[in-house]
Protein 1
Amino acid sequence: MKKILVTGGAGYIGSHTVVQLIQNGYNPIVVDDFRNSQPAVIQNLEKITNQSIPFYAIDICDKTALNNVLKNTEIEGIIHFAAYKAVGESVEKPLMYYHNNVEGLINVLDWALNNNVKHFIFSSSCTVYGEPQGIKEVSEETASGIANSPYGQTKVIGEQILNDVKHSGVDLNILALRYFNPIGAHASGLIGELPVGKPNNLLPFITQTAAGLHKELTVFGNDYPTSDGTCVRDYIHVVDLAEAHVKGIDFLAQNQPKSVEFINVGTGKGTSVLEMIQTFEETTGKKLNWKFGPRREGDVVEIYANADKSREKLGWIAQYSIKDAINDAWNWEKNIRNI
Ligand code: UD1
């Protein structure tokens, strides 16, 4: 079976991808130092998949450790998730972000090139589009490269590094997936999002508030030029997103693209913050405490994916609805809080 190295494989998107890889006949090997995840995730992955999952608790920035643990392992492809992702924190600690996200990518790429790896998938983000000018639906052709935070800038730089490496003529197939807003959890209720501290992202804050961890949700801004005054995003079920990575590895193997492929992974549909709250209440039957507050600095007003390229190139489209994702996220929250 083909071995796929998954960096950050105990994290939110990484763990769901490990499940999809196994279900599609791949053999994932996890590298994760658990700084933003829990070792128990590995046990839960083993429960879901009913097989043991090799993992190494090392930092991807530690070149020697990476070399030591993977010595003599033939890796077909790498899916590189391991990175920081909190926009606000990146503004406060930019060097920590550049160090981990950029240096980490360079190390992993270096290892890939020295060890005959064939395929490489990079976790990019719709944040590379910054605040799109005059459009809401962004395609891969939409101008990118001016992200509005150091976190976003690490994704812009990551994409540039990949372009330059590919351009140098290396024998590595490279795909950068630009994620929109992943939400939800695995239907088993065994894995999901585990924010450290107070969540920054919308749905974890909603489910934690409904679970009684916070008094109320603050909706950041109600005077945006959108249908109801709140920001609009393209929320995608994390299992759909995970599946896009499997399709991505298959695509690289079949097509061996000559340059880096950049592909949006979103549903193609925008949903406002108020619509999310309303759908949460309808889906779960729980009333949510919330209030309007000021705008959050750096928020993009309205953005969603043009999802044509993922359909055409990867044969992938989102299968799950926002209701499915909310239902799974709420189940997960109830499981971890014993509600
Ligand atoms: C941003 C980035 C995304 C990145 C992610 C990492 C963009 C367009 N998206 O997501 O690429 O991967 O951060 O965390 O740059 N909201 C509230 N109250 C809350 C929390 C959020 O009203 O307590 C609103 C926000 O204002 C926003 C929406 O909910 O309109 C979604 O916010 P969030 O979940 O943080 O995701 P993004 O900011 O879109």
Protein 2
Amino acid sequence: MPNILITGGAGFIGSHVVRRFVTQYPDTQIVNLDALTNLFNQYDFTGVIHLAAESHVDRSISDPMAFVVTNVIGTVNLLNAARTAWKGREAGRRFYHVSTDEVYGELHDPNEFFVETTKYDPRSPYSASKASSDHFVRAYHNTYKLPVVISNCSNNYGPNHFPEKLIPLMINNIRHNKPLPVYGKGENVRDWLYVEDHARAIDVIYHQGINGETYNIGGCNEWKNIDLVHLLCNIMDEKLGRDTGTSAQLITYVTDRAGHDLRYAIDPAKLMNNLGWKPSVTFEEGLTKTVEWYLTHQDWLDDVTSGHYQHYYEGMYATR
Ligand code: DAU
């Protein structure tokens, strides 16, 4: 029976990937690991899907070392474990490293897009740590012939997203009538993809991708932050029965993120043409589903913004 180790399966994207693999592949054993230990002796893994990472840019600015430890050293630990366990038995196995479009840096020309061959130019401690881990994965492929595949995805959104990230933070603050902190002038652009479409892309790449290859995943769905926040305000006004324009009054421009990347935009043509993937959820559908999920899971939101999470969460908020 095939058995796959998924790391970071308790996180935002990872939880959707675990859910998808458990439902789609009932005959495959899925082991979810959300803190690095060596399980390779216990299970003869046929595959690893490595999502575990520190992922928030603002946190990386205040604590870069945590990102080095988890994203770089954590990945190298896992690569070593796979390399040792699979030595001489690599055929039919796969180490899949899930990464980000931020490794490519920022775009200025609106006609430019990140492709798989775009030069790496990470600009935040977070993206530098992910770029470093990508390099290690490729180095293990080249040096030790470890069967690897990498994907670099644009911004995700959807249920279970921790409310330190733009979309869930805005939903939560609108709910509580708190200020909506827009960094700088709100002109930075992000390319948004519904998280279940990302989970499906990971499924396709895991099963059909070619070893040693990289695939860019994106929603072809670019939004300026300020326009996105206005759209969310309108959806929330409607859902909460508020007059249109009420929530937008909460928008507050705050000091910009240090080194804030201007624009990310993915060209997913390779994935679409070679493996037949395309996004299936429109932004309107996805955002509506997301808002509805948060409004029907307010206890989840309250839980993750209180108790042991609260200290850090409020610390972040106070620094804005
Ligand atoms: O591009 C993929 C990346 O997307 C992932 O690799 C990262 O793990 C993920 O965190 C995300 O990075 P961003 O920095 O783009 O996401 P974030 O939600 O933090 O911010 C989105 C945009 O909104 C960004 O331009 C900063 C801005 N922003 C964010 C927050 C939290 C605000 O204006 N106000 C805020 O309070």
